[in-house]
Amino acid sequence: MLNNLPIGVYVAGKSPVHRLRARTKLITLTWLAAVFFAANHKQFHYGVYVVSFAVLALALAIARVDIRFIWRRMRWLIFLLAIGIPFSLMFTPGVTWKSIGPLILTFHHVHIALGPLRVARELLRVTVGPVVVTYDGIWFVISFSAIFLLLYLGSMTLTMTTTPVALAEGMVQLLRPLRRLRLPVDEFGLMVLVALRFIPVLIQETEQMVKAQASRGADLTTGSPVARIRGVTLLLVPLVQGALRRAQSLAAALESRGYGVTGEATLLHEGPMRLADWSVLAGVVALTTLAYFFA
Amino acid sequence: MTILVENLTHIYNKGAPGERAALRDISLRIEDGAFAAIVGVTGSGKSTLVQHFNGLLRPTTGRVLMDDLEVGSREARGPALRALRQRVALLFQFPEAQLFARTIFDDVAFGPRQLGLTETEVRERVVGAIEAVALTPDDAWLRRSPFALSGGQRRRVALAGVLAMRPRVLVLDEPSAGLDAEARDEIYARLRALRERDGLTIVIVSHDMGEVARMADSMYVLASGQLRLAGTPQELFRQTDLIAECGLLPPPLAEFVALANAHGFDLHPESFGPAEVAASVLASPATRRAPLLNGNGTTGGAGNAE
Questions:
Q1: Which of A214, A219, A238 sits opposite B100 (nearest CB)?
Q2: Integer Cα distance of B171 and A205 in angstroms
Q3: DSSP secondary structure letter of residue B292
Q4: Is the pTM of this model over 0.80?
Q5: Quick check: B40 and B240 in contact, CB under 8 A?
Q6: CB atoms < 10 A from the CB of A66, how many?
């Protein structure tokens, strides 16, 4: 049931993409996000998106990620985007591309009775529209769909090819300059690691709890919305309680072993940047910059 | 209710990364009214197997029939599935961690309320279920929080929670794990009483062989997802080496009998409970020859022989 959660989806592998440092992948993703939003202002220039898509597709191909697996995770996002598209098209102001309507519906001999309220008319005209689709609306839909899908694809590439531990360590390294501002960067890293460690445990506990309640006649998949929401709250109580209990005993265990953040911790999984990392970064930056200015 | 499993295979995450076969080609039959034990080391597939019995899992291939209802089939959906779950109660490991309501009453009443019973019927069932697990259902106590109880009592409340559904089959995953000796004996006594009173079919998942030897009348040994041995505990525990091959420790008294027989005794206890083994020791010709128990070899000697 919870197998579709996009958390902890690391798929072990030894491809060049897997071997890149987490920092390289994190910076690439951040860079892409920044470039997308810059490119968003250049209407009807697709260069950046095409190049980014090519880069991500290449990365996924090199990492040998199953296309069906990606599709299964993408389809809901696409569905959500599709719901939003008509509204964005209709309600974005700007230069008109096409004006549709107005549509005038004509009804003859209308009799409406709502309790004591009676309306009787020989002729009723209802005006719908006009719906104005603007160039800005079209570009908005295209660019934001592209940005959403590409960033989703990118973060999926990141989490599928990077172990959570390397990811947390990479984040800590990128944040280290903030230490000068006396921000608790290393503590944050430890927190992230511990949190990641518990995700599979919590998923398993949730599954167990859903099953236990299903065995007693509860069913989250049928019934009225109210009943379902009540079902979910019944689920949350023991889960939160269990999580708190677990956190408490973990804190006690860490403390009793004298575990803590003292100075700069060395990192086991995230080593120095290598030639491949620098080349990937340089390549991505060069390609997207070129695409931004010339396409 | 008769449980019939035919060539059951279950694969987790089929077609996704992490695909793993948990059960392979299992066939077994648990008769109506039996007390069956499913045993095996951690990860042998015991819990996966029993989750098919109330339709929490569906067979990947093969069939699971509960009386005539095929689990996972088109007929076993919606209302039929709910009816199945009412008739086949499943209590998970450490069920006390799965209590969730604010009061003991509400927790036990959860199942009956899901059945859509009236509040009078619900109360009747709650009181009955609490009594069945040998707790006293007075009103003040029922209004307490389940979290205020001791571990053993909470587990009994959890058991009451599934009994309130009035099931025909009771499936218990490690019912005694983590309990002290007294609480454990209490749970066993309750299960035995329930079986005698209501004729329940009981299936326990366990790796405590002493428990299995005392309680069960049929036993199924799983190892790495396959059914290795099936039979009565008396038959199977006689073959201590086969049990050990599956990674399990035979009950101490079974080892004792095997050891005694290797030293020329000829013991054939009816089961591996303390009283039966003691009786078989006294009945053995080798014991009668021993001068120590001569003239004193009545039931009074059973305590010493233990």
A1: A238
A2: 20
A3: G
A4: no
A5: no
A6: 14
Average pLDDT value for residue range A86-106: 81
Alpha helices in chain A (DSSP H): 16-19, 22-39, 47-62, 67-91, 135-161, 164-175, 185-215, 225-256, 275-294
| Top-confidence range, A54-58, A220-224, B96-100, B250-254 | A54-58
Instruction: Look at residue A169 in the predicted model and tell me its pLDDT.
Output: 86
How confident is the model at residue B302, as a pLDDT?
A: 43
Contact A218 B114 (CB under 8 A): yes
pLDDT reported for residue A264: 67
**Does B17 have pLDDT greater than 70?**
no
State whether B98 and A213 contact (CB < 8 Å).
yes
- B184 in Cβ contact with B160 (< 8 Å): no
Residues 6+ apart with CB under 8 A from B288: B294, B297
Strand order in the sheet with B169-173: B88-91, B169-173, B201-206, B35-39, B218-223, B226-231
Q: What is the DSSP letter of A162?
A: S
Interchain proximity A211–B82, CB inside 8 Å: no
**What angle (nearest 5°) sits at the alpha carbon of residue B181, between those of residues B180 and B184?**
85
Asked if B240 reaches chain A (Cβ–Cβ under 8 Å), the answer is no
* Triad A230, A236, A238: Cα angle to 5°: 120
Lowest mean pLDDT among A113-117, B192-196, B217-221: A113-117
Determine whether the interchain pair B51/A209 forms a contact, defined as Cβ–Cβ distance below 8 Å.
no
Mutate to test the interface with A, among B98, B106, B169, B173 (most CBs of A within 10 A): B98
Helix axes of A225-256 and A185-215: crossing angle, nearest 10 degrees = 130
- The closest CB to that of B82, out of A209, A219, A238, belongs to A219
Of A217, A235, A238, the CB nearest to B82: A217
Question: Which residues in chain A are closer than 8 Å to B51, comparing Cβ atoms?
Answer: 211
List pLDDT tens digits, range B26-48. 999 999 999 999 999 888 999 99
Which member of A11, A66, A211 has the closest CB to residue B56? A211
pLDDT of residue B300: 43
Tell me what the mean pLDDT of segment A216-226 comes to.
73
